[in-house]
TrEMBL record:
Keywords: Cell cycle, Cell division, GTP-binding, Magnesium, Metal-binding, Nucleotide-binding, Septation. One of its GO terms (biological process) is division septum assembly. This is Probable GTP-binding protein EngB. One of its GO terms (molecular function) is metal ion binding. One of its GO terms (cellular component) is cytosol. Residues 22-195 form the EngB-type G domain. Necessary for normal cell division and for the maintenance of normal septation. Its cofactor is Mg(2+). It comes from Limosilactobacillus coleohominis 101-4-CHN. The gene is engB.
Length: 195
């Protein structure tokens, strides 16, 4: 999709703050610092519209980005961030779980993993959980600019093996620097949302 108009409609914590539109929604999930906000920016052709940071834990609310009055990207706080308190982590977990399990507008989830490393136990748990709820999932291995092209096949196999991929589970290798994989991600989003 050719994106010209985007706005941050709401940073929500409670379901009653979610937008009241019926536009389809695509959520982005993954560990803190994996690159969710960077992927959001790449998809909407902006540099730092969704705030990125080298400090993990930057995104702490569900951020609904209205794209062309057609769909929402929902940037979800990262999991696996050790520095937040246990209570905060539980509140985050509840907020994310409520959204992912109860939002009828949600059409699919983009789950990011760090392409430089094997998926972590948190990643495995998140993937299994999404699969259990039968949400359409696109796995994106990001920061792939840090990996030699000769290693791409190994990365793909590692991610598939660790997450115990469902049959036909799509996987895209992505870089926010080079924008590699961006068109594939958009194609998947268009398939899920019909935009
Ligand atoms: P939280 O909001 O804290 O959960 O983080 P996030 O998942 O939104 O990550 P964010 O997009 O803020 O990126 C974290 C750091 O990784 C930043 O320093 C980005 O510049 C860097 N980064 C993100 N994507 C890429 C990528 O594809 N390649 C490289 N080399 N760096 C990346
Ligand atoms: Mg973020």
């Amino acid at each position: 999709m050719n994106v010209n108009h985007v706005d941050l409609t709401i940073s929500a914590v409670h379901p009653d703050q979610y937008p009241s539109t019926d536009y389809p929604e695509i959520a982005l999930v993954g560990r803190s610092n994996v690159g969710k906000s960077s992927l959001t920016n790449a998809l909407i052709n902006r540099k730092n519209f969704a705030h990125t940071s080298s400090q993990p834990g930057k995104t702490q609310t569900l951020n609904f980005y209205n794209v062309e009055d057609k769909l929402y990207f929902v940037d979800v706080p990262g999991y696996g961030y050790a520095k937040v308190s246990k209570k905060q982590r539980e509140e985050f977990g509840q907020m994310i779980e409520n959204y992912l399990t109860q939002r009828s507008q949600l059409r699919g989830v983009i789950m990011l993993v760090d392409g430089r490393h094997a998926p972590t136990a948190d990643d495995v748990q998140m993937y299994q959980w999404l699969a259990y709820y039968e949400l359409p999932i696109l796995v994106v291995a990001t920061k792939i600019d840090k990996v030699k092209p000769s290693q791409f096949t190994r990365v793909q196999k590692l991610v598939k093996d660790k997450l115990e991929f469902q049959e036909k589970q799509p996987l895209v290798l992505f870089s926010a620097m080079s924008k590699r994989g961006k068109e594939d991600v958009w194609r998947w989003i268009e398939e899920q949302t019909g935009v």
